[in-house]
Predict the 3D structure of the following.
Amino acid sequence: MAGSYQEGTPAVPGGKRQQFGSRFLSDPARVFHHNAWDNVEWSEEQAAAAEKKVRENSAQRVCQEKQVDYEINAHKYWNDFYKIHENGFFKDRHWLFTEFPELAPSQNQNHSADLHTENHWSEVPGCRRSEDGPDLIIDQRKCSSNSLGHKTQTLPIEENVTQKLSHLEICADEFPGSSATYRILEVGCGVGNTVFPILQTNNDPGLFVYCCDFSSAAIELVQTNSAYDPSRCFAFVHDLCDEDKSYPLPSNSLDVIILIFVLSAIVPDKMQKALNRLSRLLKPGGMMLLRDYGRYDMAQLRFKKGQCLSENFYVRGDGTRVYFFTQEPLLPLRTKQPH
């Protein structure tokens, strides 16, 4: 079901990709120059047709026994995915620095000068509809008030080492990247389609990038990539829903956390706790950047009967799962913060 996986937007021919919020369709002949426009709304007929399609493909739910299997063996299904596709399925996300300019090199030097005094998520610009359906991009900042090229020798995958790190009491001055001045963590990194563009674009010597995935096959592909540099990056296996394992870095140590097409892959009931645990890792003024599937995405409308797990939550043919968001379910996620 390749159509159920959505990735970035192509650049305009011969020019820089425009940021969402600045794409206005004035010439109908240029309709295919972007896969989303900011001033195009669905008609009532189109919206009704999408709602009808979702009602139809949600009428028959996956049996409970299979739902338990998809949850318990989620890592296995993603391992199988990466063993089959390796690093040839998703493309590098070169749109990162357009949609999230906070990741650009110049931002690293001035990030502490603009700390927010209250916790908020800012929409960039939010829910957008296109021929591929809507797409959500969210920016969350944690405020100081505690509201929310060259070939290098790669390290072998040692899951037992990762497990040992996760159970240790992490000291503030003894963890990978402890000497860095700007730290980024990507959760659900896959094969590095976000991590490697950041490392290749951002040459700040104070930058250190962490990346994790609960697929050991994906992490192996990251660590064996020629662009992987252990002096600037630390890749490790981690399940963001596992409440018994901690991250191998201390609280209040990260400037940015990135979740791109990740939150949608977990059971909706587990999203809040996963975000709470991640929020504790952010420094005051740190940011949590989210991009994920929007409601009535074409990927949702293409699902057949019998693939629905729960409301707006589906399983693909390969056993991986996906949830489709609107702004409303994200509101409680962004306002509930750990104390």
